[in-house]
Inverse folding.
């Protein structure tokens, strides 16, 4: 390939299947505010989710920590400064920093502990770990689902979240049109009163082949 | 040479890619190359330059992975830059603000003529420079 063709912006996108995150690589270098940083981070996390879901048969016995470490390692490969188990008000599952911007992810396996367990994680994220300042006004719930029908689980989780926050913090939930499994919630952060937005990200890891 | 800082950076490569994987070696060879040359000879680093520096046994995929990683916040030893080929085979730099404007509007202004460039993603090229972290490592 001719050198100039090889290093054209458009050509980078042709390598997206081979090099996770390469399509957004220049955009990642150009971010100029917190919202752009988080927006590109979510594109990159979506790539990681897709990659991990492709090999769900290998992820049936892995612990919550092990799965989160894989997310962290993939983010490292894209160049993110990400840390697992960093202490910010407690031991956060996933912390990503750029400049003085902060994004925190709380990871939970959806198992027999059900939606209460997820809600515990949501409360840890929103009332313990996150600062709720304008440079940490978003976070994420990483939900590892080994059970069938992730869509139904996510819908029930959304209902549970709304029902259990009816009187507090004006929580709203809204769908993410590009991916109907994912949704956002937004509420007034307890500490700052600023809007705090959480992306609820399922990892569909169910594996039960019938043949 | 700040050997301690150099070792810290190589430890990050090992932690992130596993030693002695091809990807680890690609990162280490690029880093060695940056340390082996005077900064004024490293002002326009392209994939071809890196390929010649690190050898043919590493694929374009490994090179793309390495440059993305080395430009990131984790181990920032490279910085990414944009340019466009001009009529006389020279290159004109495009600053980050103009690139941001292009991303937002789909319109990139030619740095010399001031005209809009059609299909700019086909024409904008990337290249790299060593970051200040490399200078830190090179200091005695």
């Amino acid at each position: 390939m001719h050198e100039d063709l090889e290093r054209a912006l458009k050509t980078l996108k042709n390598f997206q299947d081979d090099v996770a995150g390469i399509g957004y690589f220049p955009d990642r270098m150009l971010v100029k505010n917190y919202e752009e940083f988080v927006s590109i981070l979510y594109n990159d996390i979506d790539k990681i989710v897709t990659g991990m879901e492709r090999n769900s048969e290998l992820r049936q016995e892995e612990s919550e920590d092990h799965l989160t470490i894989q997310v962290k390692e993939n983010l490292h490969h894209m160049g993110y400064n990400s840390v697992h188990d960093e202490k910010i008000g407690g031991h956060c599952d996933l912390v990503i920093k750029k400049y003085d911007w902060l994004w925190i992810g709380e990871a939970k396996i959806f198992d027999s502990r059900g939606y209460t367990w997820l809600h515990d994680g949501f409360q840890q994220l929103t009332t313990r770990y996150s600062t709720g300042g304008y440079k940490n006004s978003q976070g994420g719930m990483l939900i590892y689902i080994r059970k069938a029908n992730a869509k139904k689980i996510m819908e029930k989780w959304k209902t549970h979240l709304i029902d259990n926050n009816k009187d507090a913090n004006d929580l709203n939930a809204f769908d993410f049109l590009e991916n109907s499994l994912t949704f956002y919630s937004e509420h007034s952060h307890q500490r700052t009163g600023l809007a705090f937005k959480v992306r609820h990200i399922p990892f569909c890891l169910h594996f039960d082949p019938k043949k | 040479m700040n050997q301690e800082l150099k070792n810290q950076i190589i430890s990050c490569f090992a932690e992130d890619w596993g030693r002695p994987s091809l990807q680890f070696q690609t990162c280490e060879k690029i880093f060695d190359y940056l340390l082996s040359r005077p900064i004024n000879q490293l002002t326009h680093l392209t994939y071809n330059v890196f390929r010649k520096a690190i050898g043919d046994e590493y694929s374009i995929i490994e090179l793309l992975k390495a440059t993305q990683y080395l430009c990131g916040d984790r181990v920032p030893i490279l910085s990414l830059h944009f340019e466009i080929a001009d009529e006389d085979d020279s290159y004109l730099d495009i600053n980050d603000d103009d690139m941001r404007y292009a991303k937002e509007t789909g319109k990139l202004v030619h740095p010399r003529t001031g005209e809009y460039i059609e299909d700019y993603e086909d024409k904008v090229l990337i290249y790299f420079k060593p970051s200040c972290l490399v200078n830190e490592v090179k200091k005695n």
Observations:
- Chain A has seven helices and nine strands.
- The helical segments of chain A are 3-6, 9-13, 25-30, 34-54, 64-77, 114-129, 150-163.
- The CA atoms of residues 89 and 128 of chain A lie 6 Å apart.
- The radius of gyration of chain A is 18 Å.
